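Section 5.1 Outputs to date
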Amino acid sequence: MNRSTRLAIILGVSIGATVSAWAGPYTIGTVTVTETGTSPAKTVQIISGTLGPLDVYAGITELTVDGVPTNSFCIDPYQYSNSSAQPYTVASLASAPSPTGGMGSDAALIISNLWAENYQAALGDDPGSAAGLQIAIWEEVASGTGISFLLAPGQSDYGASTMIAAALAADSNGVAPVSLVALSNTTYQDYVVQNVPDSGMTLVLLGFGLASLAIVGRKARPVPVTTD
């Protein structure tokens, strides 16, 4: 391994480590959250234990958290959202949503399994995958809080029941739960986010990828031919 290859590896690892540290785990405290949209998503009709029947977007809720773009899912079908910047508290998932008293650890674990098994598909081109994951999360929140949540009669669940069945069996199938936290506000809807934001891990992999490309490029470089 020559000097330039070693430098490329060091640079790649350093980029990944630096950005991962910048985008590290959330700490308990107050953050500023702004909801910027919901995409991909489907419009579904729900019957909430506190809000009654209403049409809502079910899918990935896009936020900025202290200015950082962040994907989330709603964990509070009992309160309205607000698109202006609001103070939120980083809390354990089991203790949210507020002010219901929390969903408890069992529901929080199932939501972690749901995320681990379905989040990547939810990022794809089919908005039904994102809608199904959101509905499954709402149903687990309702199970934990004891406050009713239903889909309107005839409304598709976009595969949520299948996702929940798989999540209940996830531990025996060797699926590693994902570390999640709640962003909680007593007035507006709460959100679940991954404890290590995606941007950090993506750039860690990018750093290693750049290093690998440098190595591959070095190995693929033609050897000059010398003549006597």
